[in-house]
């Protein structure tokens, strides 16, 4: 076992400098992601007891993200990408501080905190996606995302458990807000540490300054369809687990335990997949993730009790990393092909892709609000996720078409052998086989 770990560590050290720095930066920042994704929503739920307010908070986040993607494009012409990347991580702590400073969680305060959190995600994901695209190629992306996902799932075992039980034990009675404030302070310190590591990288801004286009290749529209389907779940899933657990289990400690149980299983699954999967396995991984997601929705809808929530979290925490591990390489392979074919900056596609996600997120969150307003919160929490999960199953067929058409486009552009020559691989990339 020790020799295996030593081999894995040595293999990681052999990767390019920027590859290692980006992984380490994201690994440190991953320590705060469960807090941002789960416990901020739980804080809103605890202090407002209003699931629709939680979803409205999420909608303001999702509104801030695409606007910041656009702003980030302009700022990249003036500031180094490392500064914008670090700003995104730091803003997440600022947003939490604003939330904790509110005496009452009215819609205005929740909306302001949500917009700032959306700006944080916008700066973080816009620059993270571009850097991940710039330092990887189609052959090493399974390894990159397998490695990232493995660390994320390990972190997801520890952080929700520790934070959840800390809030529950240290925050009894009126002290619960103090516990959340302490957690917020720790989040801010971790974002500072991640920013420091980020500045050790030799990351470069996009060379092409133009990034706004309104007309794209028909192949790109297929990926936007896939992005919208992915966004459906994002519009619901960031807040739904916290709402379900707070309503049906009732404690942040239980919230952390449920997260950790699923993450333990997911960590081992992601390790195996990340080390053995090849590009041709992406559709299979993607389909498996979507099926796990559908099973999670069915358990929640059929049982709608504490047991149902536990099964929901178990399947969900396997589904999400599997979907990401397959989706991002599919997305980046499309960008690789079209950025060369249309002679455009990769960031132009990253920006436009966010709009596809936003449409899906808005529909997903809107579905919840509609069911909650016209029927009840229970109907929304119980059945919205089932509707979304089965709509998402269409993603399997869309992804299959994208992969097949991508092979055809590469075959049209390249010499016999269908291998990507050097000019089709961004500078600094190396082929890495997991």
UniProtKB/TrEMBL annotation:
Where does the record locate the signal sequence feature?
A: none
Kindly list the residue ranges recorded as spanning the membrane. Answer: 21-44, 56-77, 84-102, 108-126, 147-167, 179-203, 223-248, 254-274, 283-303, 355-375, 381-403
Q: Which Pfam families match?
A: MFS_1
Q: Which InterPro entries match?
A: MFS, MFS_trans_sf, MFS_Transporters
Q: What SUPFAM superfamilies does this protein's entry cite?
A: MFS general substrate transporter
Keyword check for Ribonucleoprotein: no
Keyword set for this entry? Cell membrane, Membrane, Transmembrane, Transmembrane helix, Transport
Concerning Gene3D superfamilies, the annotation shows: MFS general substrate transporter like domains
Compartment(s) of residence: Cell membrane
Q: Coiled-coil annotation: which residues?
A: none
- What topology in the membrane does the UniProt record assign? Multi-pass membrane protein
Q: Does the keyword Transport apply?
A: yes
Q: Which PANTHER family match?
A: INTEGRAL MEMBRANE TRANSPORT PROTEIN (PTHR23517:SF3), RESISTANCE PROTEIN MDTM, PUTATIVE-RELATED-RELATED (PTHR23517)
Q: What is this protein called?
A: MFS transporter
Q: Which organism is it from?
A: Chitinophaga defluvii
């Amino acid at each position: 076992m020790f020799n295996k770990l030593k081999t894995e560590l040595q293999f990681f050290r052999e990767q390019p400098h920027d590859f290692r720095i980006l992984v380490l930066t994201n690994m440190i920042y991953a320590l705060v992601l469960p807090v941002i994704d789960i416990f901020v929503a739980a804080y809103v739920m605890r202090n407002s007891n209003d699931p629709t307010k939680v979803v409205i908070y999420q909608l303001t986040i999702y509104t801030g993200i695409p606007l910041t993607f656009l702003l980030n494009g302009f700022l990249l012409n003036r500031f180094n990408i490392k500064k914008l990347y670090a700003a995104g991580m730091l803003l997440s702590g600022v947003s939490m501080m604003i939330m904790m400073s509110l005496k009452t969680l009215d819609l205005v305060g929740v909306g302001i905190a949500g917009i700032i959190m959306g700006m944080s995600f916008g700066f973080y994901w816009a620059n993270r996606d571009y850097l991940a695209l710039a330092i990887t190629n189609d052959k090493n992306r399974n390894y990159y995302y397998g490695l990232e996902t493995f660390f994320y799932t390990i972190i997801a075992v520890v952080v929700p458990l520790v934070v959840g039980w800390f809030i529950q034990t240290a925050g009894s009675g009126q002290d619960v807000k103090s516990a959340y404030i302490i957690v917020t302070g720790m989040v801010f310190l971790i974002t500072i540490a991640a920013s420091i590591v980020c500045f050790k990288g030799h990351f470069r801004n996009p060379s092409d300054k133009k990034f706004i286009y309104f007309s794209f290749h028909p192949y790109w529209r297929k990926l936007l369809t896939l992005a919208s389907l992915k966004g459906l779940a994002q519009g619901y899933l960031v807040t739904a687990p916290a709402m379900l657990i707070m309503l049906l289990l009732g404690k942040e400690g239980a919230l952390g335990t449920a997260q950790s149980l699923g993450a333990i299983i997911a960590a081992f699954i992601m390790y195996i997949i990340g080390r053995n999967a090849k590009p041709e396995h992406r559709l299979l991984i993607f389909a498996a993730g979507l099926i796990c997601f559908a099973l999670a929705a069915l358990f929640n809808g059929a049982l709608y009790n504490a047991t149902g929530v536990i099964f929901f979290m178990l399947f969900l925490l396997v589904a999400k990393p599997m979907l990401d591990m397959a989706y991002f390489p599919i997305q980046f392979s499309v960008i690789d092909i079209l950025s060369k074919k249309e002679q455009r900056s990769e960031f132009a596609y990253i920006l436009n892709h966010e709009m596809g996600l936003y449409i899906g997120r808005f529909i997903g969150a809107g579905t919840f609000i509609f069911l909650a307003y016209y029927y009840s919160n229970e109907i929304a929490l119980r059945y919205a996720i089932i509707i979304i999960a089965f709509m998402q199953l269409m993603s399997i067929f869309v992804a299959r078409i994208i992969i097949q058409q991508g092979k055809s486009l590469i075959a049209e552009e390249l010499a016999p052998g269908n291998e990507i020559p050097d000019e089709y691989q961004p500078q600094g990339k190396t082929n890495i086989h997991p």
